[in-house]
Structures are given as C-alpha cells and as structure tokens.
Amino acid sequence: MILALYEHDEGVETAGGNVAVYDVDGNSASFGAASVRGRALVWRLEQEAETGAKLAAPVALDAGVAWLLRCDRVDFPPGGIAYRHTHPGPGIRCLLYGSVRIESGGESREHRPFEAWFESGPEPVLAFASEDEDTAFVRVMLVPREWKGKRTIRYVDPADEDKPRLQRATVFFDEPIEL
C-alpha cells in the first residue's frame, strides 16, 4: 500500500474510501467523502500514488491487524520540543506554519510551511519547533485499532514522560479502514 499526500489550492471533492481531507482555512478534517472550497490537503491510502502527489510513501500493513486512519494536528509554542519518541504506525505530516527540525535515522531536516515528511512509526524521532514563532502541523497516521482515542506518542527515554509537554495534539478523527 501507498500513503500519499496531495495538495489542492482551489478546493477538492472526494467520493469516499480511505481518504483524509484537511480544510486548511477551516482547520477541520473529514474522513471519506468531503468537499472543501479553499486550500485542502488530502491523504489517500491507495495501491499506487497518482500523479501530483506531494509525498508518497510505501506502508507495510499487516492484513491480520485491524487499522485506523487517524488525522490530528499538533501545535507547539515557540521553543517547543517533542522529545525522542515513536508511534505505533506510519504517517505523513505537513507543516502548516512556523518551522520544525526533525531528527531521525541519523539525519536532521528543517521543514517550512507546507513541506511534508514521512515517519515510519518505530524509528525514533526528535522534533524542535521554531524558537521565535508558534508552529503547527497536521498529520495522518495509520495505527492499530486498539489505539483508538489513545495518545500514540511513546518516549524512548521513560524520564521524558515526566518532562513538561509543550506540544498539544488535537485529534480530528480515528476511523477504521478496510485493506
């Protein structure tokens, strides 16, 4: 399977399926069939990415596991940090505003508004938000259904669990998908 992200500056209509649609101006998200008149981000779980994908990544999903498509938004104040952590599944993130430096797999990359990146889930990630401005990204992850309604971040160092968490995640939806 491929998880692909598409950007639509002039709006979009989706018919349904394993699709997440984020309305950038309205800060809202829909699963499946949706209509957005302005700028929209659309994630699709598909067999093959269509032309024009902003980012497409192969995802290996165990057919014996029941999966959810989760869409949420993560906001950081200036100087926010997400200490080294993992998630129970893969996903694509897209920065809405601010900047964020992501360290993972021995690499470091700075992201600017409307740049996207893929996280595998089990590969540890460390994130540093802009020192000067608020930062936010929206993401779509695939997670096993037992994670419905649960926080997915797991810190590599258990001591980080007790540190102040400056980031705030707002879940838009957790919807079951069919493979």
Write the layout of secondary structure elements.
Blueprint: E1 2-8, E2 12-23, E3 28-36, E4 40-46, E5 55-58, E6 67-76, E7 81-86, E8 91-97, E9 100-104, E10 107-111, E11 116-119, E12 125-129, E13 135-144, E14 154-155, E15 168-176
Antiparallel strand pairs: 1-4, 1-5, 2-3, 2-4, 6-13, 6-15, 7-12, 7-14, 8-11, 8-13, 9-10, 9-12
Summarize the structure.
With 179 residues, the chain is an all-beta fold. The chain has strands at 2-8, 12-23, 28-36, 40-46, 55-58, 67-76, 81-86, 91-97, 100-104, 107-111, 116-119, 125-129, 135-144, 154-155, 168-176. It has 2 domains: 2-58, no CATH class; 67-176, Jelly Rolls.
* Structure classification: mainly beta
**How would you characterize the largest beta sheet?**
5 strands, antiparallel
In helices, the fraction of residues equals under 10%
Strand content: over 45%
CATH-assigned homologous superfamily of the largest domain: Jelly Rolls
Number of helices in the DSSP assignment: 0
Q: What is the number of domains?
A: 2
Average pLDDT score: 96
Describe the global form. Answer: globular
Tell me, what is the CATH class of the largest domain? Mainly Beta
The count of strands amounts to 15
Residue ranges: pLDDT <50 for 5 or more in a row? none
CATH architecture designation of the largest domain: Sandwich
- Report the CATH topology name of the largest domain: Jelly Rolls
